[in-house]
Amino acid sequence: MKDELISLANKVVSEAIKYGFEEAAAKVSVLKETMVKIANSEPSVIQDWDNTFITLYMSRDKKIVVSSIHSIKPESISQVISKVAKGVENIKPSILYAPLPEPQRVTSLSGTVDKKILEAMDEPSNIAETIIEVAHRERIDSIAGMFSLRYSEKALVTSKGAELYEEASMIETYIRAFAGDGSGQWALGSRTLDLRSIEDMARIASKYAVESKNSVEIEPGEYDIILSPMVAGNLLNYVARMSSAYYILMGVSIFMKNRPGDIVASSKLTIIDAPRDKSLPGSTAFDDEGLETYNKPIIEKGVLRNILHNTKTASKMGAKSTANAGWIAPSPWALKVESGDYTLDEMIGEVKNGLLVTNNWYTRLQNYIEGVFSTITRDALFLIKDGEIVKPVKKLRIADTFPKFLHNIYALTKESYPIKWWEVETATQLPYILVRNVKTSKHTV
């Protein structure tokens, strides 16, 4: 469909120019998805989607409008653009306006489509059976969760002459296992269908469910905490998003007072924006302005290396685009956290008084500039004493600050995991992470 999608995007751009806009960019996206929900250890719902939609950027007199069109009928496209054109006079010029960039050569990513995912979309029951069978090798009661198989295409055309296309596949899945009063959860996000990784996901969730039975209350306080990739992925997603120049300009980032070159974390931590890692969902050869993407450290060995820019924030801050557009807000594409030197058992052995946190939810920021946050542990939570897990415990609230959290990272495991689900929106490959002296309190949810 490459030619058809590029042709459609060109027509949308031409229509915007016809209605008096000076610049326009159109991204036409096609998403085919098969999702299977699992409840009580059985497939409960199978849903299929096949959608085509258009997102459109237009500017006139430095006024910026971003709109979406959910119909590809010419009359619908014309109607939306006409309506926007009539209302643009009431919009103030944007303080972030910068012209769309000139087109450049973009090296495409190869191997982003796994035929096994396309085949599985026609018969997803085999994956469901695998997840359920592996999970029940442990002595659990039941599992719930979902897996989603997707094939996507996108074409980007700009009025400056860029014409780009790419396609990709992905699987996103998680399960939550239950054993008595114990529960465990794990997730996976990948461009390829690997049954061994899916089995590992089911095994980890069920293992944590069994081990967390008969949990007891403990007193909150300051603990050394080992964060599973599920939890670390959630928290580091927040950190990575706050490296966006847009959020820095809007005053909702812990990096407002920092510049590249500043020490912002432990030397153990390296976070990379990895749009060209074809194994991770979110990877892409080009950004929404048509610039070629590249891998870059956000934090490298504790040092802030890059603020993420599109051409607009870059113009405002006297920098260069990092090819992370977002027509309005630049953002990371996919994240990799460099691994460390420990096994998980060795990491547990480093902890005298601490916790192993396997899952979390309800992460909230009370102060974006200072990075004051809280999150509630969920599912399996374990108390560690003198280098050994001694018992499962009931949930607590982690309540601390991101700057302290980043500086107190002490160790990372060798093995890492590709995590993506609704609490880790940007796909992230990362290990278990040990953070010293983290504050906890009683939960209220």
List keywords for this structure.
445 residues; alpha+beta; 2 domains; 13-stranded mixed sheet; six-stranded antiparallel sheet; 10 helices; 23% helix
Quick synopsis:
The chain is of the alpha+beta class and 445 residues long.
Write the layout of secondary structure elements.
Layout: H1 2-18, E1 23-39, E2 42-60, E3 63-69, H2 74-87, H3 115-122, H4 125-135, E4 142-158, E5 163-179, E6 182-190, H5 195-211, E7 222-227, H6 229-241, H7 245-249, E8 271-273, E9 296-300, E10 303-304, H8 311-317, E11 335-337, H9 344-349, E12 353-357, E13 360-367, E14 372-377, E15 381-385, E16 388-392, E17 397-401, H10 402-407, E18 409-421, E19 424-441
Parallel strand pairs: 7-12, 11-19
Antiparallel strand pairs: 1-2, 1-4, 2-3, 4-5, 5-6, 7-19, 8-9, 8-11, 9-10, 12-15, 13-14, 14-17, 15-16, 17-19, 18-19
Q: Would you write up a description of this structure?
A:
- It is a single chain.
- This protein is an alpha+beta fold and 445 residues long.
- The chain folds into 2 domains: 2-208, PmbA/TldD fold (2-Layer Sandwich); 215-445, no CATH class.
- 23% of the residues lie in helices and 38% in strands.
- The protein is built from 10 helices and 19 strands.
- The chain has helices at residues 2-18, 74-87, 115-122, 125-135, 195-211, 229-241, 245-249, 311-317, 344-349, 402-407, and strands at 23-39, 42-60, 63-69, 142-158, 163-179, 182-190, 222-227, 271-273, 296-300, 303-304, 335-337, 353-357, 360-367, 372-377, 381-385, 388-392, 397-401, 409-421, 424-441.
- Strands 7, 8, 9, 10, 11, 12, 13, 14, 15, 16, 17, 18 and 19 form a 13-stranded mixed β-sheet that branches. A 6-stranded antiparallel β-sheet has the order 3-2-1-4-5-6, with helices on both faces.
- Helix 4 (125-135) packs parallel to helix 5.
- The longest helix has 17 residues, at 2-18.
- The chain is globular.
- The model has no long low-confidence stretch (mean pLDDT 97).
